[in-house]
Amino acid sequence: MKLLRILATLLAVTLPVAAFAQDNPATPEKPAAPSSEAAPKLDGENLLVGVPDGYVLGDKAQGDTGLVGAEFIPKDETVDDWTSMITVQIFRGVKLGPDGFADQLKTGWEGACANSKVERLGEGRVNGYRYSAWYYVCPLNPKTNKPETMWLKAIRGNDALYSVQYAFRAAPDDKRKATADKYLAAASACDTTKPKHPCPAEK
Questions:
Q1: 100 lies in some domain
Q2: Of 122, 138, 179, 199, which is the most exposed, with the fewest CB atoms less than 10 Å away?
Q3: How would you write the pLDDT of the chain (203 residues) with one tens digit per residue?
Q4: What is the CATH number of the domain that holds 72?
Q5: Domain membership flag for residue 33
Q6: 48 contacts: CB under 8 Å, gap ≥ 6
């Protein structure tokens, strides 16, 4: 299954996410429809992300090395023809920190897009886990002949490295930045077995 079409996503990955209840991925011919399935019960360490209103699961994959990844797109778009996309990844067994991962993406991004811009926005802690935030701009993606902009939040968990990306096939502007910033600010991780990384109460 071909996954991770965002320009920056050039590495192999891993992922169990509570938000991934939808099991009806889109195809280039057929956009996905929302699912009514309940989110799986939290157990152990989890990446916590939401699916914005109007977005559906576009594609998902799990690799032989434990990689899992998923892409979410607006409901009337496809994984080959989208205006915005959220990509969520988990890398189990990867020792990289948030900046090491983001810097590898930087190398791939700059190699694939001429005159690109990559900037580290900052670092911090979310629910006790280290994270860093980065910003990637491609003035013209040679594969689509469109500009591409991506905001990244990489979280270093105890069991895995987590990556959450919000991308647009458009040049950056204040509205897109605000949308991505708000979404990524809420992305977190938790562990049902470790009180210092508490999980939200299940409804």
A1: yes
A2: 122
A3: 233 333 333 233 323 333 322 333 444 344 444 443 455 678 899 999 999 999 999 887 676 555 678 999 999 999 999 999 999 999 988 889 999 999 999 999 999 999 999 999 999 999 999 999 999 999 999 999 999 999 999 999 999 999 999 999 999 999 999 999 999 999 999 999 999 999 998 76
A4: 3.40.1000.10
A5: no
A6: 17, 18, 19, 187, 188, 189, 190, 199, 200
- Any domain includes 58: yes
Nearest to 25 by CA among 85, 83, 66: 85
Matching residue, tokens 């209103």:
53
**Tokens representing residue 196 in the block:** 């210092």
- Rounded Cα distance, 89 and 162, in Å: 6
Burial of 173 (0-12, 13-18, 19+ CB in 10 A): exposed
**Sequence letter at residue 18:** A
The answer, as to whether pTM is greater than 0.85, is no
Structural domains counted in the chain: 1
d(CA 166, CA 170): 12
Q: Which domain holds residue 118?
A: 45-191
* CB of 154 closer than 8 Å to CB of 102: yes
